[in-house]
Amino acid sequence: MRDAVTTLIRTYDNTGRYLDRSALESLKSYFDTGLDRVKAAAVISANAAQIVREAGAKLFEQVPELIRAGGNAYTTRRYAACLRDMDYYLRYGSYALVAGDQDVLDERVLTGLRETYNSLGVPIGPTVMGIQIMKEIVKAKVEEAGVANAAFVEQPFDYMTRELSEKNV
Ligand SMILES: CCC1=C(C)/C(=C/C2=NC(=C\c3[nH]c(/C=C4\NC(=O)[C@H](C)[C@H]4CC)c(C)c3CCC(=O)O)/C(CCC(=O)O)=C2C)NC1=O
């Protein structure tokens, strides 16, 4: 599992280079946003259950077929599995925010996920919608908590969206 710093060091070490201007710039930007990243993680930790519940409600309001007979989130077991998946995306997203790197998502969340979803008939489109709804909720809450520029919050959610949506993995 890597973070912004270890990823950078690995790249430079591979070619035996000292950190150059561009490396130092990217380190600086990572450390400059450090406190905001920690704040965002704190906001997520403190509100996780509520964020998942709210995002789930919104998703099922927008795609009501999911929870009707024949829908993939129909039955209590599958409804719970769906919200549990949303909770995974939120929790791992908070790790990626602190790390400033998406590697944890590749390693722990995304590997083999499309195949699993396809074999269980879990629809990717609505899953991605759920991830995007969570992104908006988290961003709003992080801004409410006083972080002026919360754009960085979008990264892990957009990354999971992109990777899940990719056609051939
Ligand atoms: C931490 C990494 C990790 C992830 C990401 C993960 C996902 C994951 N989601 C699963 C199932 C599932 N996932 C969903 C999710 C949904 N259905 C919908 O209609 C919605 C669009 C969506 C919620 C937003 C559902 C309903 C199931 C159960 C499917 C079934 O058993 O028929 C399964 C199959 C095994 C199980 O049911 O637990 C896995 C492995 N597991 C992991 O360990």
Describe the protein in words.
With 169 residues, this protein is mostly helical. It folds into 2 domains: 1-32, no CATH class; 34-167, Phycocyanins (Globin-like, Orthogonal Bundle), CATH 1.10.490. 74% of the residues lie in helices and 0% in strands. The protein is built from 8 helices and no strands. Helix 3 packs antiparallel against helix 4 (76-99), helix 4 runs antiparallel to helix 5 (103-110) and helix 4 (76-99) packs across helix 8. The radius of gyration is 18 Å and the shape is globular. The mean pLDDT is 96.
Question: Mind sketching the topology for me?
Answer:
Blueprint (H helix, E strand, L loop, with lengths): L3 H11 L6 H12 L1 H29 L13 H24 L3 H8 L2 H8 L3 H21 L9 H12 L4
Helix pairs in contact: 3-4, 3-7, 4-5, 4-8, 7-8
Bound molecules: phycocyanobilin
Shape: globular
CATH H-level superfamily title of the largest domain: Phycocyanins
| Total domain count | 2
For the biggest sheet, the summary is: none
Intertermini distance: 20 Å
CATH architecture of the largest domain: Orthogonal Bundle
Low-confidence stretches: none
Fill in the CATH topology of the largest domain.
Globin-like
The radius of gyration is: 18 Å
Q: Count the helices. How many?
A: 8
Taken as a percent bin, the fraction of beta residues is under 5%
Overall average pLDDT:
96
| Share of helix, binned | over 70%
Structural class: mainly alpha
